[in-house]
Every structure is written in C-alpha cells, then in structure tokens.
Amino acid sequence: MSVQEDGGPVGLGDDLADRIPALLRYARAITDPVTADDLVQTTLLKALEHGHTFRGDAALGTWLHRILHHAFVDHLRRQREVPGGDLWDAVESRWRESDYTVDAAVVALRAGEAGALRDSLTRLPVRYRSAVVLHDMEGLTGAEVAEVQGVSLPAAKQRIRRGRMMLVDALAGADARRRATKGVPMDCWDARALVSDYLDAHLDHDAARALETHLEGCPTCPPLYSALVASRGAVSHLRAADAVISDEVADRLRDLVSGTDASA
Fold this sequence. Notes:
- This protein is mainly α.
- Among the domains are: 12-79, Orthogonal Bundle (Rna Polymerase Sigma Factor, Chain: A); 85-180, Winged helix-like DNA-binding domain superfamily/Winged helix DNA-binding domain (Arc Repressor Mutant, subunit A).
- It contains 13 helices and no strands.
- Helix 2 (33-49) packs across helix 3 (60-79) and helix 7 (126-137) crosses helix 9.
- The protein starts with 11 loop residues before the first helix and ends in a 6-residue tail after the last helix.
- This is RNA polymerase sigma factor.
- Residues 21-80 form the RNA polymerase sigma-70 region domain.
- Residues 190-221 form the Putative zinc-finger domain.
C-alpha cells in the first residue's frame, strides 16, 4: 500500500477487497454466519471511514482484524454475554490435577470434524476463542494477536495457551454431548440460531420440523428455548392496555398529520 505525504494511506479501498476472505474466515470461526457477515461489513465501513488513521505501524490485515475484534466485543457486550472467568477457573482446576487427562484419539477425531470443532470453539469465551483462531488458524504471531486484542504480549500468549486448553476440554466433552444427542438432527448451535425465526413463524415446514425434532431429543436446548419464549412473552406484555391510544385519538392524530381537523 502506498502512503500519502501526510502519512495516510492511498487506495485503501482497493486493498480492502483482497482482505475480505480472511476477515470472513476469521469472523465465521468465532460466531454464527449472519453475525459474521454483519461484523465484516461493519469492519469495512469503519476502515473506509477511519482509513486516514492507518499509518502502517501494523500490517493492514492486523489493523482490520483489530477493528473486527472490537466490533465483536461490542456486539457481545450489547448481548450481555457472560464473562468467561468462571469457565477458565474450572478448566485450570482440572488441568492442575496430576491424574486429569483426556482421550487424545477422541479429541483428534472431533477436531477433524468441522461441525464439532466449530461447536467447541463457540464454547470458549471470546477473548480466548479469538486468540486461538487468530494465532492457530490465521497464522498471526503472538505480538500481532496482542495488537488485535489491545493487550500486552504476555497477556496474548496467556490467552492462546488458555484457549488451547479450553478447546481440548470442549472437544473432549463433545463426545459426551454427541452420545447425549445421538439421533438428534442438526447441532445445537444451528438449532439455537433458528429459534427466533421459529418463534416468528419464518421457517419453512422442513426447517421447523427439524428444529422441533432437535428440541424433543436434545438435553440442553429446551431450557434455552423455554427461556426465549418466556422473555419474548414478557416483553410483549409491556404493551399495557393504558399504553394503547383510543381509536378517536388515533383518528385525530392522523387528521393532524394529513393537515385536516376532524372537529371542524
């Protein structure tokens, strides 16, 4: 990329197009496809808007990954994702036990299955999930991971180490989850991503039936589904009777908007 006399980039838009595949790959490894596509779009828009701030101190790819990472963190904060401290404490406690181990063959087998690997990655808190994907999938150095996440190099290395340990535990647990959901169509993440459309009656017959079958056989998804139904219903009840205007008032408001007066 060439640089202007004032230090800003020239032709940033041309370079962005070449970075889209890598951004999509990273985003889809840490979240669902719909959110991933939105994050990439947000990243590109922010990069174009703030392109003048890119001085070349870091690689363009690192700068873009940093924008995407922070956009994802902001998204999770709005969703109020539970922090991952407790999960790490539980994993570390197991790994500290000298007699703790896993079946390496099972972990390797599950890691080789894209669905199981994706499901296990989504079980990692975002800081660890992102660090592992950036380092082990995208090939960023520890220093570049630190740059993306806005932390020190020792912190980035710690996140990579912890994330790998968490991923091993998640993959090892995937075998138990697999046995518990044997014969249940679609994986849990895919099912949970469809629930909102199901509640709004936006799924076709086959997709709706597949989701219903999953809910009938899955040991973990039904409580989440019930919680979504309850929260959705509670929000709908906020529309109290005294908050709904009468037909007479509605007619008068429409008349005012249209420039007439019903009382004349």
